[in-house]
Fold:
Amino acid sequence: MAFQLPKKGFVFWPVATGDSSTVVVNDNATVLQIDLHQCADADDENADTTPIVDELVRLLPKRNKKPYLHILGFGDLLSQVTIGELWHTPRIFREYKADLTDDAKKFREEADRRRKLMIKNGNAVESGDRLRVIGHDEGIFKDEKYKDFPKEARSYPGQSIEFLDGEDYVGTFEAFIHAPFKPKEDSDETRNNSSLALQITLTEGTGVGKALFFGDREYPTIKQVFDITKERERDQYLEWNVQLAAHHCSKKVMFWKDDGSDKETYRKDLIEDFENAAFEGAYIVASCRSDFTDGEGDNPPHSKAREKYEGIVDAGHFLCTHEYPTKDDLQPIVFSVGSDGFGSDDKQTRSKGPSGLAAAVTAARGAEKPPGSQVGFGPL
Structure:
């Protein structure tokens, strides 16, 4: 049977060392794509990567007989599907102009087309023309091109998005924005550390599933995310059932060299932050090839990062997209959210995640970590 999307949940695709994550928000009728990595050889029948564009065109829900999508990255989908709403962070469009790929140039052109329509018409634009700018970077809104961009289409760290393409998903979907910060707050100014960082919560009745996405961020700014969020007593936005390992399982997440230091050191504080925020039975997904080594320059992925991540979760709950379910039979990694809670469609062990209110109550009474399903209330 051909692969099908879950009714509600998270899907991580095998696309080599790169990210392509799909969030099914509402009974396979509303789908959000976070990044899009189409490998050059993906259409080769002998390739070990998924032709993600072809799969999305096949799987996406249809509106007016055309596949329909919300997207936070870009590829050559534009000519094949209706992208209801486009999200982007500002920095890459104000800088890094000379080395943009063809897809990135198409993204910028499409964002610019939508920007003009949004300035002219505000939120009255149709699906397929919507744009949202995400990031605490007021500089872009002082720019001549963006100074009149509608305020209701701007989102900042510390805020939640619960509307998609103008539709209200309060109580069933929440994307909490952790970063990018204001430029002066970023402790590292590389492009990696301007990535979008999100916690996405899906809710179905009393069942809840939470996922963390840090993009290509590294230790300084991920640590900043945790410190700022805890300082503001909003720890619920750090919780996770599944975490996508940042920067394709790079060791720069937990091994870091400060300015003026001779060598990098292991940063146990962030690993403890990850562990303390994890629900019982949580999973970590590494979106990368399975060549985990520790040689000079072999990063990402890196064997030391894998080792540290495996120490956070239960045995078998660190999953690599290019080992799942086996290296010879790659399939998407799927996590579902239903009224009985968060669960893994685990083709390796056929184990299930937390199940429903009873499991949540048991975990709440006896576990050191938070329960995998919230009891009696949704996201705060």
Summary: The two ends are 39 Å apart (CA to CA). The chain is about 20% helix and 25% strand. The mean pLDDT is 84.
